[in-house]
Design a protein that fits this description.
Layout: H1 2-42, H2 68-77, E1 89-93, E2 96-100
Length: 101
Amino acid sequence: MNKSKLRIFTNSIVITLLLTTTGLVFGGWILKDWQDAVTKKFEGRKWVFPSKIYSDSYLLYVGINLRQDDLREKLRRLGYVETAATPKLWIEERNFIRYVD
């Protein structure tokens, strides 16, 4: 009777080890597949934008105590340049931008 209990216990351990190993291998394969999918998604060119985006956060509102020199320096660092031309008004309509003279 002891031999049969020992055999059942041994078989149970072997089956448990096989299931655990299979689960780990399958889980590793799934994780590798997900990693490859995410890596592929984020490699290469991500967005189609102009070569330079003029963007930065800066809080502006009516009545703010603002030093013009600081604002000019920030705009200069972003690549803006001062011109003598009059700024143009543009209106965005559906899928195009229309300039108003």
